Amino acid sequence: MIKRMLVLLFVVVFLNSCKKDTGCSATESSFVAPASETAALQAYCAINAPAAVAHSSGLYYEITNPGAGSSATICSNVTVNYEGFLTNGGARFDYSTSPVSFQLAQLILGWQKGIPLIKKGGSITLYVPPSLAYGNTDVRNNAGIIIIPANSYLKFTIQLVDVQ
Q: How is domain 54-164 classified at the architecture level of CATH?
C-alpha cells in the first residue's frame, strides 16, 4: 500500500513539474460597459450590423468563421490579421499588412472578450464601446496626430491566425 502511494505521489510531482510556466498572472476582467454605451452601440448595430450579437460585456460581434482547434485564453499569445475603423464615418485608423502577434492580456478589453469567441483560423467583427477600448483617452500616431478620438466606438475585423 505504501509503495503504491509513493508511486502515485511520484507521478503527481513529476506531472506538475512538466507544466509550462507562462509567466502570465493576468485574470479575465469582469468589467461591463455602462448602459449608455451599450444602448448607443445597440442603436448603431441595429442600422449598420443587424446580425451582430450582444456580448455580456457590452460589445457586439459577428462571427464570420468560427475556426477550429484552439481558443485563446487571457494568457494566450495570439497572431492576427486585423483592421480597425471608427464607427462615426468608418475611417480606418489601423491595420496589419501581415500577421502580428500579441499577448491577449495586453490588448484592449474588447479584444480580450471577443477573440476567445473564435478558434484558430476563425474570423470575427467586433463592435467595441469606448470603455472596452481606449475610454476617454485620445490615441495618437507616431506623428502626434489623433487617430482615435477619446470616447470613440470602434469596429475591428479580426482573423485569428494562430493561438499559443
A: Roll (3.10)
